[in-house]
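for the writeup, i need someone to sanity check this before i put it in the appendix. the sequnce is what the collaborator sent (i think, or maybe the updated version? ugh). structure was predicted straight from it, no edits. if anything looks off just tell me and ill rerun, i have time this weekend
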Amino acid sequence: MKIINIKKSWKLPFKTLVVVMFLVSLSSCSEEFVEEPIDTSGVTDAAIFANRNNVQTFVNGILSNYKGQYRTVDVGGLYAMYFARAVKGNDIIQAVSWYRFDYGHENREPAFRRTNFTWDFNYENVNFANTLISGVENSDLLSEGDKKEFIAKGKFIRGFHLFELLLEFCPNYNNNRDLVRIPIYTAPTSLETATGNPPLPMSEVYNLVIQDLEDAVADLPDTRLGKSFINKAVAQAVLTRVLAVTQDDWSKMSALARAAYGGDASAAVQSTNWGNGFGDMTDQEWLWAMFQNGSDETNFFWGHAAPMMDHLTLSYSATYFDPEFVSEFSATDSRNLFFDIYGVSDSEPWREFISTKYAFTFASDIPIIRKSEMVLFDAEAQYQLGNIPEAQRLLFALQSARDPNAVMSGNTGQALLDEILLERKKEFYGEFGPQWFDAKRYNLPMNRNNIHRISLDVPADSNLFYLKIPQDEIDLNPNYDERFNDE
């Protein structure tokens, strides 16, 4: 793994890094205040793992990194990685602005900032997770209960980011589970200790991801400080995403999804965010999000998708929508927030539709996972298990919550699966790229019409579905060579 990070972290020795993370995070990632740590005059790694409050503050700093600002607007935090996926499909049309190279599927070369940011950001957080796990395990001052909880948090963070790396740098898992692409790190690394681990078969990395998340599900509490923190339900939701990719245990995927959304699909999908700016994490339907308050807890114009999609507020106003996608929404669907405010022209037909889904402010919270995603995953799992009426019922729970005139689906077979995947596109447009995620795991193409600013077809299982290994990793890790990027 590359040690010189684009931000600053691996330029610092371990103790200094811990101090920086500790002090920076004192006011980070919380809707509530965490008690001030005991040692404020000079923090060492021993002090950080001396009591629960200090360790929690370290975790806050890791989660605060998710909405960070790195070098440029399109390589910020977790939101930047998700929005880059969102613009790769055929629903969004991105103007000549930030994320335009992701929209054109041009941003995957070894020296490009998307590739380097995605690698560095995720491995940085893997290292933070390993630092957390190691520090807690070696602490003589924490209670056994606290150790169990914080090790679970560390395993969740490690599993979550290894999964994101698998998605970004590897092809479809089920086409070749033995393909070697990325390395695993399970101990803290620093400039003094890192030599670069060898890449492993995808199956070994997925096995660690699943084990980490299963351990997190087992040991994380149900309670948390707020929705920008992690708990058992968040771990269940992420593991559901993982099993949607591996596709080898649909029953377990359904059970995890139900546990994450609470079991009552009709209640879980109720939301007041649609039509109200889509920026309020207190909505019961949001499961995990990045908190912003407009002042000390905000990243201002970086928190996409809101500043990209909002054309009514001073922001980038760079995202438009394909008319064919817009036509999939009924007039009474609460998600049908598309408008023609510019007047379509022959020279720029792609500028016809904008969406008011997001009302951008510096206090707009950023969704990571919502309960509706889990309901649709449950429907998908039931379909795969052959429980067609249950799959239809779960799908209708969401459809009827968004559209009072919705009619329960009568589809079966491939048509029902297609309808579930379409509903994912309609529910999560602009959020995390459901079409990219689904096309990759189901070996589907992504085809654009001629209205798009860049009209292209991405064939099923195309190498455009994953990024190349960063050139710095090729150069610095002796276990890599140029053959890893011969595609």
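Residues 9-278+367-485 form a domain with the Serine Threonine Protein Phosphatase 5, Tetratricopeptide repeat fold (CATH 1.25.40.390). The two ends are 21 Å apart (CA to CA).
thx in advance!!
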